[in-house]
């Protein structure tokens, strides 16, 4: 059971302004269980095309797609089921509700051949599941964004699909609605036990939602694993950047050991990491901005222990619940970005600060 | 006198209604194919359908005579198999009206179909509906305003058709003398009274059909 995808496809992607079209090659393979899978990557990384290939709305050049033991596509044996025979639950980015049908008709549209009484039962079951009772008589133009999204979900789920595919379903919704719908999706996955593939470019959505994250970058799967693995052990620089590791040191040297682990040197600074880097001479590493601790400058805090630096604040950006602070470390041109929750910010802190990073937060990749 | 006006009116309505029905059916199918399908020679099909829009009606009529005449490709086949000659019958007038009004139908309908969000069709496919069902219950209902506009234009064009009709159907009293042809004949022969009656009737018919169409558009608005 689960989803097994292995496909490749070349297509023209829209070129940058004034430029020529680029030929984009998508080469994706992953295998996931009946779980909530987030396909995560920047726009233009091939996420949507992958999803459309699974749904049968686009055709890969070669490969195979198997969902719950049923072969949707297999270039070797020439199998290519029409979307009508795959019947995935598909939630489109712009909802794609039929504007000339009311909510009731939209939801029962996939229940072809059901008798009226059963259709009606299923309709109310779906309305209850998504908490949209009472909306059945409205037209899509009379619904809010969140309601449209719920109706789109109800419509996709009504025919009991083998798989649910969601293409950035929450990108146009506000924070509160988004959070509620995420919870809904999680519950639905637990209740129905079907694989759900969810596309997003938001790291926050990926980590809060996924049982498993598949990271897509420029048409390739770079990493597939639990959110913890992807967010705290990114396999390479691209994944690290995607999951928000903004302080990256490339091609540094492993220069020795310390009681806490290994000492790395890059751009004139030494860092200590608890990751095991024995056996490699050069590595890249990074630190998540929220894992950097800032304190008001105090000479007594400086020590020979690793990962304690003095520096000057260059810039502060207010992000509401937290502040993004850029600190230039003494004796180097290294600028670290630190994300500090506003309520934890030391009021006495001036432009001179002490930066402290735990050895476990120095993430090594490659 | 009244009969001189009523007969052309009935011929015109018969020809225009029948040709508009044909235009509606074929126009929708052709428009759908042009807007949604990829096939070899699509550009050629597009040009062939549009051609009567830019050709003078007499040229269109001449080409139809060549095709439909007893020596023409279609005409000779028809004559040999059924013994039926198409030219100078009211059927020929229907064909002339059909050919000249088809591009108006196709241009408006194809652009209305293209304007329908493809994602809606894809959504219908993933919900298990075939392309035909999707066309009938999703695409066409959403393109209905453009389709109706195309039908109204086609009907108006069929009512006003003159040049091609004259070439393929002649101006045979009681058989193929449509309103447009009769107005010309009456005017030429100095029968101003008849010309006036015909002109007024034609204007009223046109206004009525426009008003009727406008009501439908209103009722259909979602």
TrEMBL record, chain A:
Molecular-function annotations in GO: ABC-type tungstate transporter activity; ATP binding; ATP hydrolysis activity
KW Transit peptide (keyword) present: no
Gene3D superfamilies named among the record's database cross-references: P-loop containing nucleotide triphosphate hydrolases (3.40.50.300)
Enzyme Commission code: 7.3.2.6
Cellular localization per UniProt: Cell membrane
Protein function: Part of the ABC transporter complex WtpABC involved in molybdate/tungstate import. Responsible for energy coupling to the transport system.
Subunit text: The complex is composed of two ATP-binding proteins (WtpC), two transmembrane proteins (WtpB) and a solute-binding protein (WtpA).
Protein name from the UniProt record: Molybdate/tungstate import ATP-binding protein WtpC
UniProtKB/TrEMBL annotation, chain B:
InterPro entries hit by this protein: ABC_perm_TupB-like, MetI-like, MetI-like_sf, ModB_ABC
GO molecular function: molybdate ion transmembrane transporter activity
Keyword Cell cycle annotated: no
Entries under Gene3D superfamilies matching the protein: MetI-like
Subcellular location per the Swiss-Prot or TrEMBL entry: Cell membrane
Xref: SUPFAM superfamilies: MetI-like
Record's bilayer topology term: Multi-pass membrane protein
Record protein name field: Molybdate transport system permease protein
